[in-house]
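Reading is simple: the token line describes the chain's fold. The lines below illustrate.

. . .
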Amino acid sequence: MNGIGSKKCHKVVVIGAGMAGISAAHYLVENGVSDVILVEASDRIGGRIQTIFREGKPLELGAEWIFGGCPSNSLFNLANRLKLLGREIQRLNDIDETVQWPNTVGYIYRSNGLPLSEESTQKAYEVFNAIRDEIQGYFQKEYKVAGEEMQRKGRASVDVSTAAFEKTRLLTFYDSRVLKALAYLKVNEKFAAVNLKQVEAALSGFRNTLSISLGEDLDQIRLELTGSSVHLPGGNILVPGGMVGVLEALVQDLPKNSLRFGRKVTGIDWSFHSRDPLLMDKIHVECSVQTNMGSQTEDYFADYVVSTLPLGVLRHQFSRLFHPALPSSKVQAVQSIGCGHMSKIFLEFLSPWWAPGEGGITLAWTNEELRHRMLPRDWYLYISHFSEVEGHPNLLACWIASSGARIADQLSNSDLMDRIIWVLQKFTGDPGLPGPVKLFRATWSTMDNFLGSTSFSQLATEEADFHELSQPLPSATSPRLLFAGEATHSRYWGTLHGARLSGIREAKRVLDRITEVDILAAKMTQMATSPPPTPPHNAGYKKPPLPPPSPSNFRASMKTGNHVRFRLDRFGGSPG
């Protein structure tokens, strides 16, 4: 660190100690840039990874899985390299379609307290997973194919995202596929034993399930881009020691005191205008720090700043955080990409009232129940399912989707527990079910450092928005203020491995720029310190001055063509 008075000057300042920020800092240090500082608003690392421990076992309040356990997943490879996955990798494998959602074996219940039959449950899962796969594949099979067709017809300059497709609401598509499936089951004799009313109720309730996995109410999600975030094979992977262990391993390689907790960024000045001439070419990061004396300001100056501020924070604060203001193209990307909401609440009971391994309870809200839900009153109608928790036999996880999650995050623990146990009693038909004694949660929608969960493709989103959000300022050729985070990765947005790759991407961009600047500086230093070139052997010879041309000589030269030779001689050229 270079100190200028009380000012802190560094090569790189990284904002945020989540997956993207720590990955960026680690990659920089690993490649020789040791003057890196991470400023983190909270008192912990992880961002939307938050692992707590109950009786020595991890409980994930935030991101829980590595999505896609295969070598194409950078995070999976890292966890393997760090030997954090154990001798036998724990996978929620998606080969068996009947256990994709919910995540444990169990029953589907209706609000009348009756479970669906096994035949209806099996068929409902088959239909749901087929629709889900069609949604995931729509981008590649329909959207990209249409773009290639347009190029073949000579319309390559047309923006496929706006010209080739209307912006289809995912709910419209889902409901149409449900009706099609029910019509097929109705006329097919081999499904005569299947109760269509039960299947219809299950598929209605699965709207909440799909909302949880995609981040928002289905009528706010754009079908065409949902599958643009690539789904990797290999199932979902659990990290036995807790997801935060991946980041803890990386932090150990960072320089001492490079992590600064409790620093909430209140301003980023990338104008490169300072009264101090030594700071003219620096980016100024202003942080608020809570001390015993109250809130104080702490300033950092850096050649490069990597911002990993979550999309929710950017959407609410971009107008007052950045000076000068962000370009309109980046503001549009910030506002166009959706910021999702979901809530995962862990309920602790004195003892489990469910059979071990069969605690999965999925709620089949009917179309009628969902059609008339009103917020904030009916937030509980967004509860999708309950699942058992690995390593915690007394816990159930309650999953709440989208708009309901935003309301649930504002409620007190007692209000939450009262309503959730009422829902469980209603759907199981057992009014004697004991209530939970405690709950654990993180209110991502209301916490100032996040204001949401992961990104999603809302109706206003275009494919180019994710790329635009990742573009550095002031330009790609002069990257000084850089942006990382899962919402900046156009292939893996909404995932932990997308966040990691985005951090590494921006670290590489900084390294490339540092190399360019160092090469240029070395050349300038060489030019400044090199001795003057040796003069040629006849350098002491001087031509006698030419006599000034008389009018008669000039007229003669015009006749003979010697005016060309005369001009070259006057300007030092060769007459030969």
The longest strand covers residues 294-307.
